[in-house]
TrEMBL record:
Keywords: Hydrolase, Magnesium, Manganese, Metal-binding. Residues 7-152 form the Nudix hydrolase domain. InterPro entries: NUDIX_hydrolase-like_dom_sf, NUDIX_hydrolase_dom, NUDT19. GO terms for molecular function: hydrolase activity, acting on acid anhydrides, in phosphorus-containing anhydrides; metal ion binding. PROSITE patterns: NUDIX (PS51462). Its cofactor is Mg(2+); Mn(2+). This is Nudix hydrolase domain-containing protein. Coiled coil: none annotated.
Length: 237
C-alpha cells in the first residue's frame, strides 16, 4: 500500500514567456542530475513557499505568488513582479513519491532583460529559451527530460502566437487542479488524472474514458479521450 505519510509542502512555479522572431518562447532550467527530486529534468523556475511568506500573506495563493517571484530571482536572476503572475493550474505530487508538493503554476511575460538569465550552477545547471513545440519534439526524441506538469504546460502554450495572448487567455480560463495517481500498465508508468475511468480505483486497465499521461519509449504521451471525461483537456486552449 502506498505511503501517504509524506508531508506535502506548498510551492509555486512560473512559466516565463517572451516573444522572439521565431514566435513565443518559454524559459526552461535543467536541474542538477544529483538532486533527489526531478534530478536532471528540465523545469520552470520555482520552489517551496517559505514559512515567513505564509505568515505575511493573506492567503496561500498570495504566498505562492511571493515565493514564485523570489524563486525566479534566485534561480535565474530575473525580476518578475507578483502582479504579472497569472495563475492557471495547480499540481500535487502523487502519493508514493518521497517528496510531495502542492504547487501553484503561474505564467508571466518577460520583456527587456529576458536575456539576462543567471543560474547558480548548483541546483540549476543549464538554461534555455525555447519554443514550446521544439521542447516537446526534443522530449519525444529523448533529448530533453520533462515531467508531466512541464510537458502539459508547454503543450497548452504552443497554441498561442504571443506571450501577451497566452497570458490574457489563461487569465480568464478557470485554473485546473490535478492530483495524479500512479500505476502501471504493461510495464509502463501511467499517471491517472481526474475523469479517467481508472482514477478512483487506481487501475489503468478499467474500460471507459481516458485522462492520463503514459511514460513510453518516446517520452510522455497524453491521452484525453472518450465521451465522459468531464474535464477540459490540459493541452488545449
Amino acid at each position: 500500500m502506498a505511503d501517504q505519510s509524506v508531508s506535502i509542502r506548498l510551492a509555486g512555479t512560473a512559466v516565463l514567456l517572451r516573444n522572439s522572431d521565431n514566435g513565443i518562447e518559454a524559459l526552461l532550467l535543467r536541474r542538477n542530475a544529483k538532486l533527489a527530486f526531478a534530478g536532471g529534468a528540465w523545469v520552470f523556475p520555482g520552489g517551496a513557499i517559505d514559512s515567513h511568506e505564509l505568515e505575511a500573506a493573506a492567503s496561500k495563493h498570495e504566498a505562492a505568488m511571493a515565493a514564485t517571484a523570489r524563486e525566479i530571482k534566485e534561480e535565474c536572476g530575473l525580476n518578475v513582479p507578483t502582479q504579472d503572475l497569472v495563475h492557471f493550474c495547480n499540481w500535487t505530487t502523487p502519493v508514493g513519491e518521497k517528496r510531495r508538493f502542492a504547487t501553484w503554476f503561474f505564467v508571466a511575460k518577460v520583456g527587456e532583460g529576458s536575456g539576462n538569465v543567471v543560474i547558480d550552477k548548483g541546483e540549476i545547471h543549464e538554461s534555455q529559451w525555447i519554443k514550446p513545440q521544439q521542447a516537446i519534439n526534443l522530449h519525444h526524441s529523448g533529448e530533453l527530460t520533462m515531467m508531466p506538469p512541464t510537458y502539459l504546460s508547454l503543450s497548452l502554450l504552443r497554441h498561442y502566437e504571443t506571450a501577451e495572448l497566452a497570458c490574457s487567455a489563461l487569465a480568464v480560463r478557470k485554473p485546473y487542479d490535478v492530483a495524479p495517481r500512479l500505476c502501471r500498465l504493461q510495464n509502463k508508468i501511467v499517471c491517472l488524472y481526474p475523469g479517467d475511468a481508472g482514477y478512483s480505483a487506481i487501475n489503468s486497465a478499467l474500460p471507459g474514458p481516458r485522462h492520463r499521461a503514459v511514460f513510453t519509449s518516446r517520452g510522455l504521451v497524453y491521452d484525453h479521450s472518450g465521451d465522459d471525461v468531464g474535464l477540459m483537456p490540459m493541452d488545449q486552449p
